[in-house]
Amino acid sequence: MMKKQDNELDQNGYSIIKGTSIEAFSEYVLCFGEVINTTEVKVKENPKAFVTSSKAIPFHTDHHAADYVAWFCREQASVGGETMLIDTTKILYQYSVDELEELKGIHFTEHTLFEGDVGSCPLLDMSFKNKWKIYYSFELHGNPKTHNPTLRKLENDISNLTAITIRLMPGDALIIDNRRMLHGRSQIQGNKHRHLTRYWIK
Asked: Within 47-184, where are the H helices?
């Protein structure tokens, strides 16, 4: 099973595991690297963060230190709570070298959570495998009104691309390439008893 999921993750940017246990999945994610953060994702009445809100969450990546993000579904809401994915490689391959260089100069705000964090991260960076690594957040660093044509083009392309929609059920798990895939979430409704365990993997 693991080899199959590894191949899917490399080819598609994400992989779904059906009918596993939290113990088995917790061991499985260690195959990808070090778990640098684990969060129990539940809806709270007075949330201080998007992740604990019942509202729909727009497309983004998580902290840049997480190469992979994984979720294990313990419980799902009766309505809503679907995970949505956008593969940025389907967008960026169409961009010119000049456009990609321009996107490298754009920074988005990032929470300072780990030693060495500076509060922002470039939208694009080149990985050691010569692949673009994306960081896409909710707020531009510095002046939030600073929009250039290439950034507007990227935002438009993201909004026009059909998202992959995944509804995890108890015992299901999902792992994504955090520096390739944008993820979002539909509004959580109904009983709102959605509970996922989230892993950041470096």
From this structure: 89-92, 97-104, 149-160
For residues 124 and 172, what is the distance between their CA atoms, to the nearest angstrom? 31
Do residues 77 and 191 make contact, with C-beta atoms less than 8 angstroms apart? yes
Closest CA to 14 of 57, 51, 58, 69: 69
Choose among 162, 201, 20, 56: nearest CA to 5: 20
Domain boundaries defined on the chain: 2-201
Give average pLDDT by consecutive 10-residue segment, the chain, 202 residues: 70 95 96 96 84 92 97 97 96 94 93 93 82 90 75 94 97 97 96 96 98
- Please give the structure tokens belonging to residue 93: 């391959």
Q: Which CATH class is domain 2-201?
A: alpha beta
